[in-house]
Amino acid sequence: MAVELLKEKYRSQVREVVLGATKEEGGTRSHTLKVGGESALPFLHFEGTIPNRPLVAMEIWDIVPEEWPASLKSFFEDVYDDPGAWAKKCVEEYGADLIAVRFKSADPDIKDASAEDCIATLKKVLEAVGVPLIVYGCGKAEKDNTIIGPLAEAAEGENLLLGVAEQDNYKSVASAAMAYKHCVIAQSPIDINIAKQLNILIAEMSTPLLDRIVIDPTVAALGYGIEYSYSIMERARFGALQGDRMLAMPTIANVGHEVWSKKESYISEEEQPGWGDQAERSMAWEAATAGALLQAGMDILVMRNPNAVGLIKKLIDDMMKG
Amino acid sequence: MGLTGLEIFKHLPKTNCKKCGFPTCLAFAMALANGKTSLDNCPDVSDEAKEALSSAAAPPIRLVKVGSGDNVLEMGDETEIFRHDKRFNHPTVVAIAVNDNEDIEAKIDTINGLAFDRVGQHYEVDMVALINASGDAATFKAAAEKAAAKTQKNFTLVTSDVAAMEGALQVLADRKPILYAANKDNYEKMTELAKANSCPLAVKGENLDDLAGLVEKIVALGYRELVLDPGSRDTSKVLADMTQIRRLAVRRKFRPFGYPTMVFTSKDDPQEEMLQAITYVAKYTGLVVLNTTKKELLLPLLSWRANVYTDPQKPVAVEPGAYEIGEVNENSPVYCTTNFSLTYFLVEGDVDATRIPSYIISVDTGGISVLTAYADNKFTAEKITAAIKEYGMEEKVKHRQIVIPGAVAVLKGKLEEESGWEVIVGPRESAGIQKFAKERFA
Ligand code: SF4
């Protein structure tokens, strides 16, 4: 018997954001990337278009990531002292679509590096790879406010994705994006209303920025409250398709950052015999977290383990088949 | 369930004869919709209308039970598309495939060992999917005997050969396994077998159209304990099919799809297989059969299943109490936080990462976060003091020091007065705990 499929008719779609800029466009990237633009729920090709595949960014630091477990660190042992080489390895060997540079050195409790130091590093990375870049500060808002502006200025026209604007601290990042032609990550604490409110605040500063916002809804790792992030994402994406333009931005998730501090990532099999091999388990934890978030509509996954990246890229290949 | 008065009215005789005690058929229909009377009170309702009304009143997806005795797994009875609307009811059953021509005992031992404890919860693989890979009925039966003797887990018996199924059922019928599967060639005999043994019957279509047709034929034979396999194996196709089955059953009340679903993973690589299963658990699958028995891959899968099937409407809380992180002793540091689960899990993860065995007191704030609870007078010096006493911290540790979240540093004075403990103000953000602990306790 012929089954009549139930296809949703949506009024709207996710905004499409372009990352990076080529020489003609005022930057130096070898190519640009588009993200978002979906007119259907995740990978439901039968009722709309998924014009752009979700992207996988790999995260690099500007200091040696001492806190990473050996099973993760070992991939990058040869490149830690050189963020350019690290970025290049991620792109050339591991297939990263984007590079996310985290300026850990700026942390006042680590090296308290200056904006000039960070700019020098950013330039190295820009030279080393042609892919578009994501830029994160050290995570301490007061300090980040002093480095993001100068970094944005130094890379004017590159159309970076600048992190992060938050509800009580969005102006410096948003104005840097506005002034020097970059995109901006708008981060909200697992709260759909704040996500929307923040976009409205940014739009009040500059309406054109609306098409250059990527929402970070804040994700929790698998086993640590991921279901809340998942459901917030599902609601936001459904809202976007139903016409809520202030939620209709593509999304980004700091998967690696969340996963690699959790027990499942580092505890050895000797210490926790029931949990299986640490190296594979930690990789699987990161991949599973990313795979779960893809089902809620995540557009950019920021990850660390090259094998998890490889697996997720294969999963995305499969999911993009109509 | 969910029928309106008007929908019911359409099926009534419309004679307004009043025999039901209501002035009109419409009044009766309205009362019925509100559960205030029963259909039996209308003597003139036709059998056809009875059938239509009772099936319309049935839940959109049938509850199907596998197993017997204390070991029953429930599947189906789902009513939602999105978990944020209402809890998904019956977690995806996770089964591991065992071929009848491999070392059954060794494999079943491994499967029996696939049990995990994490964050105070216990996860297990639920089922063995015994596959007639040999194609031989006697081998299948012998394998069923070996497997049955080795495990109390539930079974799916996988063969399209009716004779082989019959043989295995001689061993396993009492355990009420799923019979996999009825197809267009064998469905009459398989249905008979399922009926005779009261076992759930899996129905495998070649696609959605084929599946719906097959289900209708089996239902016409009078059997409804069904589990649906749309036959797709490519990840994105399975997602599309599972979505359609759920939507059509729930939103359109399309009866042929009103049953729980199942699928086999198709990737040879165990890691890729796990990611397929992650996708299927997220999107509506009632039972997934995997090949891998790797703990490091099944732990994330079972954790994800536990996450998806939590109740989104419950306050987001962990049980208040004193949690032991690592091998604690009487000198271990004591932290306190709220019982908002996101906060608690963050703190737990970060305390755990210090690798210094510690206690965390999860204070009952009704599942709200530190600052909200503080503002709401639910995270106070009195409450923390009461928790220290109630959870026996004075006996558990020799020292009298407690770490409070940096965000509520103002509580320090009052809490010291109230509890007599020395209060150490911890970092504002949980992420700062590692550094804090290194400086303070290492
Ligand atoms: S008894 Fe039946 S037919 Fe008569 S009024 Fe009531 S509902 Fe209508």
Question: What is the radius of gyration of chain A?
Answer: 19 Å
Mean pLDDT of chain B: 93
Structural class of chain A, by secondary structure, is alpha/beta
CATH topology of the largest domain in chain B: TIM Barrel
| Helix proportion of chain A | 25-40%
Number of contiguous helices of chain A: 11
- CATH-derived architecture of chain A: Alpha-Beta Barrel
Q: Main β-sheet of chain A, in a few words?
A: 8 strands, parallel
Largest beta-sheet details of chain B: 8 strands, parallel
Number of domains of chain B: 3
CATH topology descriptor of chain A: TIM Barrel
The rounded distance between the terminal residues' Cα atoms of chain A is: 23 Å
Radius of gyration of chain B: 28 Å
CATH class of the largest domain in chain B: Alpha Beta
Number of strands of chain B: 17
Attached small molecules: iron/sulfur cluster
Order of helices and strands of chain A: EEEHHEHEHEHEHEHEHHHEH
Q: What class would the helix/strand composition of chain B place it in? A: alpha/beta
Spans of at least 5 consecutive residues with low confidence of chain A: none
Percent strand of chain B: 15-25%
Largest sheet of chain B, order of strands side by side? 10-9-8-7-6-3-12-11
